[in-house]
């Protein structure tokens, strides 16, 4: 078990970051938003807590994003690529999307096993 170090943001040329199913805990460092070439970010099936940093909206090249099956809460960032991700990207978390243009409201509750 470990955390995602804030220094991860220094990997500015990285295109793919897949840390799924690694038993990672803690929060998502906002420094990930400095990885402006990132196209694929998968942090699913870990023990992450907190919310998705609003600064992730700066990741304009993202075509795949998943934080499913973590212990997240709060709002899903809006705008940019976040308007294109499927609901399955956020399954199993207490996240809500308040997209003004689409008048939609999603709630994903953590399932208890």
From TrEMBL:
Entry's localization field: Membrane
Pfam family of the protein (one): LRR_8
Keywords in alphabetical order: Glycoprotein, Leucine-rich repeat, Membrane, Receptor, Repeat, Transmembrane, Transmembrane helix
Single GO cellular component term: membrane
Membrane topology of the entry: Single-pass membrane protein
Family: Belongs to the RLP family.
Protein name, UniProt field: Chaoptin
Species for this entry: Acer negundo (Box elder)
